[in-house]
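Appendix B, example 12.
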Amino acid sequence: MKRLRQIVTKAVVAKGKKRYETSEVLRPTNTPTSILGCWVINHHYHAKKHGKFVEITGKFDVNVWYAYNNHTKTAVFTETINYKDRVKLHYRDEDVIDSDDVKVRVLQQPNCIEAVITQNGDCFNIVIEREFLVEVIGETKVVVSVHPIEYEEEWRFQEDDDESSSSSSSSSSSSSSSSSSNLRDESSSFRK
């Protein structure tokens, strides 16, 4: 136990993920005959932690391109939609120092998955999907093993191929020249 230490550090202490499908009713200025297209733009949001939830407040614009006057004219109807979503947090550890540092990642930007004209024929019913991943950054404890100051992990050193090949070739050339001179000396002594 003497060799263990607790370190307080910042880490992801909680996460949450949620997908939403919401239905919006929009009332255009003209009575629509058919819907020609629908798209969502200008998504803005901010998040704040409330207890074990993260509340995401945002807005986006819905544009519906439609025909009216018995398919003789077209127009684009735009409306800004405000929303407030709650994402439940899941904690890994119980021993967490609470934090309000929240990071939000949009996994699916708001997107129209269905657009129809209502039964009475004067409104649009739009189904919009969106998905968020939230993370809470907070302080947590990490236990580490402490080693004596003299401790150093084992290193393995490998020689570079370039240096070893050049040094071996120079040593082989010097050894071959010295061996050839030795052979001459021996042969001259042998003749005598």
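The first strand starts at residue 4 and ends at 26. Helices lie at 161-191.
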